[in-house]
Every structure is written in structure tokens, then in C-alpha cells.
Amino acid sequence: MSPSADYLRFRLGTRRPVVAMVLGSGLGALVEGLSEAVRIPFAEVPGFPESGVSGHAGQVVAGRLGGREVLLLSGRVHYYEKGNAAVMRPVIEALKDIGIGTLFLTNSAGSVRADMPAGSVMVIDDHIAFSGANPLIGEASDARFVGMTAAYDPGLRARLEAAAEALGEPVFSGVYMWFSGPSFETPAEIRMAKTLGADAVGMSTVPETILARFFGLKVVAASVITNLGAGMTGAELSHEETKTMAPTGGARLAKIVEKMLEEGGFDG
């Protein structure tokens, strides 16, 4: 077991969460819904990277949500911060080592669909890794040849959508395209993304999905839509807009996640 996992085990004590969630920009408020919370800054965990992006707290928070033990990663470190697609590998490997079986990834994303406006929630059913980077480059073993046909677990996606339906919360499903960032996409790139079959674009999640599948974790993921893509409205994009709009869809996603937990959607 890695030093990261050993430290997390020590801090978690008798807690045994089986699902972990990575919270994207503006989604950290989900942490406030936890009961019996234990907070562990990334900086305290040996080997964990630290984020320098505003809106990403960079802490592990364990607690109870929807009657289940969960582990929330409030903040992530992006490829564009370090130039390393595998920057989150120590985190995801530690999650596997402490017994996490399912990783729920969330992000803030731009929509390339006029009918999916800001405030929407999109369940990710597939992705396009447009950046050209891969977190498994340099991995020496044949385990690097990870199958990605069902990267986003169909059963978990169905349960997430069922929880949303039970609450009367409409959600979209679609394809997420990963751009490296940190600059936003151009109007031409948004038109290309739409032509290639993307429904939303963003700067995270895909490397974490690949790493999670490499380590044998099931993955379910959702985007909170914060804006329409470049060139779709004539307005310029900004990180401030992302941070401002993310809580709107984030509150809806939080309710859906809690419902899924209450109904045992992550069990088994």
C-alpha cells in the first residue's frame, strides 16, 4: 500500500467508504451536505498534488451522505497546471488501495448544443480525448492497454438517470470532449467538436477516467453546464463565469447524487 493510502487509512479510522467523488469547479458546496465530516487537505497527504486553481479547495472530505459513507475530493489538479496527464494518478491509486470501488467524476463544462443551456446536468456516456495526451504514457506493463468501450459504467449511468427521474430533475446524456486548456476553445474548435459528435467540452475528467479504469474502478460521471461554447452567443468566456454558474447546476446534481445514494445506487 502506498504512503498516500496508509495516511488516508490512518485519518479515516474505522470509516470504510466504497465510493469517491471528484468535485469540479463550483461544486464544492456538496461537501457541506456531509455529516460527521473529516477534512484532510491534499497538502497533508504524502504524494498528493496540490491545485492552484481558484474554486478548487484541494481537500479530501469523508463523511455520510444519503445514509452512506462517501469520500469527496473537493478539487482536482488539471493537466494544464503541471503539463502531466497523470498528475492525478497518486490520488486515484490511493483510492483503489483503501477499497474504493466506484469513482464519480464531476466537472463544469461548456455546451455545444443550443438546447442544453447553462444550469443543465449532462450524464457522460462517452468521451473524446482530443488533447492528444494520455495518463498511461510511460507505463511499462501491458496493463496500459486499457479497454475503454464501456468506460462509463452503463449500470451506474442508468441508476443516476433513474434517481434524477424520481426527483423530477431533467438531465441530458452525451459525449464529453477533453481539451487541454487552460485557454478556452475557439469558435472554430466548438464547431469541430459538434461535428465530431461532442455534446460538451471541458478541461478535466478524461485522464481520471482512464486512470480509474486502469486501476479497476468503475466510473460514472456528470457535467454541470456553465455556458454555451465559444461563438454560440457572441460573448467571451471566462473562469469567473464558470465559478458563478456552476453552483446552479451543481445544486441540482447534488440532489440527484444524494437520491442515488439513498436508494443504494452505488451498492454492489
Give the class from helix and strand content and strand pairing: alpha/beta
Which sheet architecture does the biggest sheet show?
5 strands, mixed, barrel
Q: Which strand order spans the largest sheet, edge to edge or round the barrel?
A: 5-8-7-6-9
Strand content: 15-25%
Spatial shape: globular
CATH superfamily: Nucleoside phosphorylase domain
Q: How many angstroms does the end-to-end distance come to?
A: 24 Å
Number of DSSP helical runs: 7
Assign a percent range to the helix content: 25-40%
Q: Identify low-pLDDT runs.
A: none
Query: Helix and strand string, N-terminal first?
Result: HEEEEHHEEHEHEHEH
The CATH class is Alpha Beta
Would you give the CATH topology?
Rossmann fold
Multimerization state: single chain
Q: Descriptors for this entry?
A:
268 residues; Rossmann fold; five-stranded mixed barrel; 7 helices
